[in-house]
Specification:
The structure holds two protein chains of two kinds. By secondary structure, chain A is mainly alpha-helical. Chain A is built from seven helices and no strands. Chain A has helices at residues 3-21, 25-46, 52-81, 93-113, 125-142, 146-167, 173-201. In chain A, helix 2 packs antiparallel against helix 3 and helix 5 runs antiparallel to helix 6. Chain A is globular and about 50 Å long. Chain A starts with a helix and ends in a 13-residue tail after the last helix. By secondary structure, chain B is mostly helical. Chain B has one domain. Chain B has helices spanning 5-17, 20-33, 42-52, 63-82, 97-118, 122-153, 158-162, 172-189, 208-211, 217-242, 252-276, 285-306. In chain B, helix 6 runs antiparallel to helix 8 (172-189), helix 6 (122-153) runs parallel beside helix 12 (285-306) and helix 10 packs across helix 11 (252-276). The longest helix of chain B has 32 residues, at 122-153. Chain B is globular and about 60 Å long. The termini of chain B are far apart. The chains are: A mainly alpha, B mainly alpha. At the A-B interface, helix 1 and helix 4 of A face helix 8 and helix 12 of B.
Chain lengths: 214, 307
């Protein structure tokens, strides 16, 4: 495992910890954006054997969507809603970080047991992408604000995409593009929905949605 | 005799230069604020002034109050003796001395807290309670970082751990994370800015300064010198973890110069952090410390994955 790859994966883990530990919306959006950029560049760093144009296209689409388009969309949503921070999450921030450490340990244990075809993958890759997916799931469950939940969804998607990269020797390009399109539509719809929920009910607190009976 | 000479030399050098580090931090802060600032040697002047004064003791305070500063300073000096610096073997090196290093600061903290409680002042009791609460989070972070470094180098003695290859060799990411965690611990333990404000003396938010309010004269000199030595010890730990040790070159003088430059960088970094950051709300401090803990845990995980 070269220092470069290791640095990449450690940065990926750190963005997850940042997402777990920060209450402010804008840094969280930035963390997920950085995550998208890192995952976009990962195939180039770990040297998947594929045609160069395919790697470049994949990295470019990932960078453009997850690094630029999604964050801008979410930033716009957050600005128009005038939400700056998540005030009272279901799980507090220090507790989330400690849960993050536990999740990291679980991902390491899981990664150690999972036999990966293609022995040339760096050791930390599978635990790191597992941890990303777990973090996303945790954020979806543990936060109340709808925007944070969208960020959790994105992190989970990042993890799954990364896992696909780790597992599949040669993914068909069509599958890759399909997941990008899915995520794009999902985030687009979520952004619009959040906006409409906010306009209708003056908040995007999913903890209070159960009291919205007619 | 030749084997211990570098150890003695580095300990003497550290004891002599330790009060310089707070001076560097304050100079950086002054430069950021556009002031000229106190002289670099201000800490020496303060300590000399305080040493010439006699201490005043309250009638209600017992021997614990008097023991606090003495134990604090001696523990810090012994910890410094166990810390290898500039690649030289430490004066006090044995298997497991990394536990001693962390434990000595725990002992010093216990006596500082006990001395603060001994005054019977509710104000100091409040500071003592905060110190105890935050140190419960800094200690695991420090120990996990040390464990990661120990596992990587395969040695249980600080001299073996820190005399290794530094950040350059494989596994540098873990070392960088561990050093970062140690730096956050330094900020918390030495009452630097995002955790505690070393310049306030009359605020309800302070942690460390409030515990020493009733000490004066020689005792206060001991406390201030002890704080400088502690800052040096934690800074030295972070620097030695990053720098390659004696194994790579073996010449003591260039190694020492490099380590001194590293210490200067620690001072600069602490000063910069202090200048650009506001003190965190007390309720946010545990979050920072848990983040340091997470960094140490990640470093440890990285080391385990590699092996």
């Amino acid at each position: 495992m070269t220092l470069w790859v290791e640095g990449f994966l450690v940065a990926l883990v750190l963005t997850n910890l940042w997402l777990l530990g920060s209450s402010r919306l804008f840094p969280c959006i930035a963390a997920v954006a950085v995550q998208g950029v890192l995952l976009g560049a990962l195939p180039l760093v770990i040297r998947i054997d594929a045609p160069a144009w395919r790697l470049a296209l994949q990295a470019g689409v990932s960078l453009g969507l997850k690094g630029i388009a999604f964050p801008l969309l979410l930033l716009r949503a957050a600005r128009s809603l005038e939400v700056k921070r998540e005030v009272e999450p279901f799980v507090g921030y220090p507790a989330s970080l400690i849960a993050g450490i536990a999740l990291l340990a679980a991902s390491l244990a899981l990664g150690a047991r999972l036999p990966i075809p293609g022995a040339l993958r760096p050791l930390l890759l599978v635990p790191a992408v597992f941890f990303t997916a777990f973090t996303g799931l945790f954020v979806i469950v543990g936060r109340k604000s709808a925007i944070m939940q969208v960020l959790g969804y994105l992190a989970m998607e990042n993890g799954i995409a990364g896992f696909g990269m780790a597992l599949a020797e040669r993914e068909p390009l069509l599958v890759e593009m399909g997941t990008f399109l899915d995520a794009f539509v999902a985030v687009f719809v979520m952004g619009i929905t959040i906006f409409h929920i906010n306009r209708e009910f003056d908040h995007i607190d999913s903890g209070r949605l159960s009291s919205l009976k007619d | 005799m030749a084997a211990v000479a570098p150890g003695i030399a580095q300990l003497a050098l550290a004891l002599l230069l330790a009060p310089l580090l707070p001076g560097v931090v304050n100079k950086v802060k002054a430069a950021f604020a556009g002031r000229r600032g106190a002289p670099l040697l201000q800490a020496y002047y303060d300590i000399a002034k305080l040493l010439a004064k006699s201490a005043v003791y309250s009638r209600t305070a017992g021997w614990v109050f008097r023991a606090g500063p003495v134990v604090g300073l001696s523990a810090a000096v012994v910890a410094l003796a166990a810390l290898p610096w500039a690649g030289a073997r430490a004066l006090l090196a044995f298997d497991g001395d990394l536990i001693l290093f962390a434990g000595l600061f725990g002992l010093a903290r216990f006596f500082t807290i006990a001395a603060a409680l001994d005054t019977g002042s509710s104000f100091e009791g409040m500071g003592a309670s905060r110190e105890a609460a935050f140190s419960a989070l800094t200690e695991p972070a420090l120990l996990l970082a040390l464990a990661a470094l120990a596992r990587r180098s395969g040695s249980l003695s600080l001299s073996g751990i820190l005399g290794g290859q530094g950040i350059g060799a494989a596994g540098g990411a873990a070392v960088l994370l561990a050093a970062g965690a140690v730096f956050v611990v330094l900020l918390a333990e030495c009452s630097r800015m995002p955790v505690d404000d070393p310049t306030t003396h009359l605020e309800l938010t302070m942690i460390h300064e409030v515990m020493v309010l009733d000490h004066g004269g020689v005792d206060l000199a001991f406390i201030e010198y002890g704080a400088a030595v502690k800052l040096w010890a934690f800074g030295g730990l972070a620097v030695s973890a990053l720098l390659p040790g004696q194994g790579s070159r073996g010449a003591w003088v260039p190694d020492a110069a490099l380590a001194l430059a590293g210490m200067l960088c620690v001072g600069l970094l602490a000063g910069m952090v202090e200048s650009v950051m506001a003190r965190l709300r007390l309720s946010r401090v545990p979050q920072l410390l848990v983040a340091a803990l997470a960094m140490s845990a990640l470093a440890l995980a990285l080391v385990f994955v590699r092996q």
